[in-house]
Please model this.
Amino acid sequence: MFLFLHALLNMPLLENFKSCVFCGSMFVLTPGFCRYCSLEIEKRTYAPKVIIVKGMIVRPLFLWSELHNLWVKHLAYSLKGGGCMPEQNFLAHLFLSIKNFKLKNADFYCAPGRHGDHAHEWAAAITSAVGKDFRRPFIKKSIKQKTKTKAEREMINIEISERPIKTKNANKAIFLDDIVATGSTAHNSLSLLEGYVFNEVWCIAYKEHCSD
Ligand SMILES: [Zn+2]
Model:
């Protein structure tokens, strides 16, 4: 009996079997979350409302409040580290379905980070859903965690690896990041771009009351 179960659990078929990243349920539909969580997620969206942070229009799919909404925190941590493309695709389609965006003159930029991380997956999910490419010219100069006070975070140092070439007729730069808190990363990254009239930030969650 034990050997049978052992053999069953090692079958290649079961290795591909995914559970819901949110609740662990095995009843996962194609998009990645289980049916219950998909419905819960749809109910809790903040979009199409926007928030103005450091003069930028920030469009969060959810509002992350440490006081009222630990649910979004759980979602953010579930997506951390990457490997969640089906879930990111689900969120990207949800984000895009809430408002009719005019994207003909928009260029997309991914937040600094490593290839395959959560911000990168969010950027890949959004741009593949709208049939566009995205650029990743930003490099974040890390500040030691120990010395990271709010004032230091405000000064987050972003560099650009190469001057990105603006698409002809593009007038809007859309910065894609999974979580926006102080807005410094987005603000400092977008300030390095030239030639755009409008800037927007699209994120999975905007983190309210971000403390030190
Ligand atoms: Zn679930």
In short: Residues 11-15 have pLDDT under 50 and may be disordered.
